[in-house]
Design brief:
There is one protein chain. The chain is an alpha+beta fold. It has three domains: 51 residues, no CATH class; 80 residues, GMP Synthetase, Chain A, domain 3 (2-Layer Sandwich); 65 residues, R3H-like domain (Ribosomal Protein S8, Chain: A, domain 1, 2-Layer Sandwich), CATH 3.30.1370.50. Helices cover 39% and strands 25% of the residues. The strands form three sheets. It has a three-stranded antiparallel sheet. A three-stranded mixed sheet has the order 4-5-6, covered by helices on one side. Strand 8 and strand 9 form a beta hairpin. Helix 2 packs across helix 4 and helix 5 crosses helix 6.
Length: 209
């Protein structure tokens, strides 16, 4: 869902109503900024324009502010945007800007570090833990697709040669993707070995009955 929307109407009320209908939200779920009241010459010719911004919970707003301050101090041209979440215990953030490649880092390591720090910030002093999910340029989805493709390719190699394959160290999230992808594979299995942060997935042939 969009985070903000500019809406038009013959009156301010009509512009607000049109925007709420498009966002499928109620009046108390948005902040409203009147950009133009719609009064042209003799009251004709100009529409009212309003900007509706989806309200964020305190944790999301805190995470966005922390990240924006962090990017400013780092001299990085980027900004954080809070997104709606279907899970009340998850804060979803997307990063926009011209420097997002720097924030992703090698295999997403920088993005993971930023996500971890933001999680510490919003959970400090809270009784209930909230998960923070930060993405940019749809990197997480692209990385997931890449890992699934890699898992299938390596499984074919292990099945054909009988030799196990040891992958590079990965974070727990990426390891789970590999395990889940090959969980029901008929001839190969996966295990994780090593200590963090060097823990890695091994794909190997299943033992014959």
């Amino acid at each position: 869902m969009q985070n903000s929307l500019e809406s038009k109407g013959k009156t301010v009320q009509e512009a607000i109503t049109n925007g709420l209908d498009e966002l499928n939200l109620s009046f108390d779920q948005v902040d409203i900024e009147i950009l133009h009241e719609g009064k042209g010459f003799l009251g004709l010719g100009k529409n009212a324009v309003v900007r509706l911004t989806v309200k964020q919970d305190d944790d999301t707003a805190e995470a966005v502010k922390f990240l924006d301050d962090l990017f400013e101090k780092m001299g990085i041209s980027a900004s954080a945007e809070g997104l709606e979440s279907d899970d009340e215990n998850t804060v979803n953030i997307n990063i926009n800007g011209d420097s997002t490649g720097i924030l992703i880092g090698r295999r997403g390591e920088t993005l993971d570090s930023i996500q971890y720090i933001a999680s510490l910030v919003i959970n400090k002093g809270n009784d209930k833990y909230k998960r923070v999910h930060i993405d940019t340029e749809n990197y997480r989805k692209k990385r997931e697709s890449s890992l699934i493709s890699l898992a299938h390719k390596l499984a074919e190699r292990v099945d054909a040669t009988g030799k196990r394959v040891v992958l590079e160290p990965m974070n727990p999230y990426e390891r789970r993707i590999l395990h889940a992808t090959l969980h029901d594979h008929p001839t190969v299995t996966t295990v994780s070995e090593g200590e963090e942060p060097y823990r890695r997935v091994i794909i190997k042939k299943k033992k014959s009955n």
